Amino acid sequence: xxxxxxxxxxxxxITAVAGGVLALSxxxxxxxxxxxxxxxxxxxxxEIFPDAEDVNEIDEALLEEIKANNKFVIEVxxxxxxxxxxxxxxxxxxxxxxxDIATITGIYLDGNLAGIKVVNNSETPGLGTKIEGEDFTNxxxxxxxxxxxxxxxxxxxxxxxxxxxxxxxxxxxxxxxxNGAIDAFVNYLSK
Length: 191
Hints:
Number of strands: 7
């Protein structure tokens, strides 16, 4: 019995020390990881809005209202050029074939899409990951935020974007997020 208590105390001390080391390393690495993620997001924004000079988060109360009424939107930023707001970037999370898809959608104040960037996904390599490709993402550029977008094999109308053959669930996943961003723009930001 005495040996069991001694062994239990040794294990308790080892796990407490290991937990402390993990907590300490997390406190050092968490800010570095957060800064890296912020820089990655800013890089994506600069790809969508190449003329952007600054980025500001929108009012927290407005963001919370958008999030309460839109299940896709998780982040909204104002895009500024020359000190003036020229558009918005809306980060969305939507479901795909392999899990969540994080997409940033850029929309100019005039209601035209600046573009999209898929920033995170777990889709099938070589098939679903085509949602990151230029052929797909470029099909969103200059589309109007007037109506929800729909995927088609050969887009020609104002509300049509490229359908990825064999990756319909991935295509629809991105589209759900982008249409969620369009909805948030129309209902909260374009006014």
